[in-house]
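[09:14] KT: can someone run the structure on this one? pasting the chain below
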Amino acid sequence: MTAGATVGDTIWYDINRNGVIDSGEPGLADITVTLLNGDGVVVATTVTNSSGVYLFAQLPPGTYTIVVDTSTLPSFWTQSFDPDGVLDARTTVTLRSGEVNLDQDFGFAEPAVLPPPPITTTTSTTTPITTPIAPPVTSPPGITPDTGGNFGSTLGIALLILVAGVGLVATARRRRTAG
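[09:31] RB: done, structure tokens below
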């Protein structure tokens, strides 16, 4: 009789998007993970615990694909780490009899830029038209979202537009005075 193999580990919130589980980066709970055999048939499905840990145990030797169900992640999150280096929320491993492989971590992060607010315009009958946007990005409880905003560059652009506007007004006045 052969000893069963084990595979799994952690799905975590990669706060700084560096692909490394750093101190203070929490696991993501309630993320669905599916295990497929070498023929692509579902062998098992599990959900991460409160620490983001998942585990498939007592497996016969063979090749398996681990698939993270990204629809169970917070909206708009992107992958920052995948064990095989391809950010596709899946990885394939080959397990020997009795092997314990707890190196199959997946990192996910909030988007670097939040979606824009809705754009409202009016038609000739002044009926508002609102362009829908995606729902707001949510963070796990106790995690403050990173908006990715850069106040310095926004202020610089606004100042540039203001200077250009003043220049246009001055030019128009000179032309009116000269004409």
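[09:33] KT: thanks! The CA atoms of residues 82 and 106 lie 5 Å apart.
[09:34] RB: yep, looked fine to me
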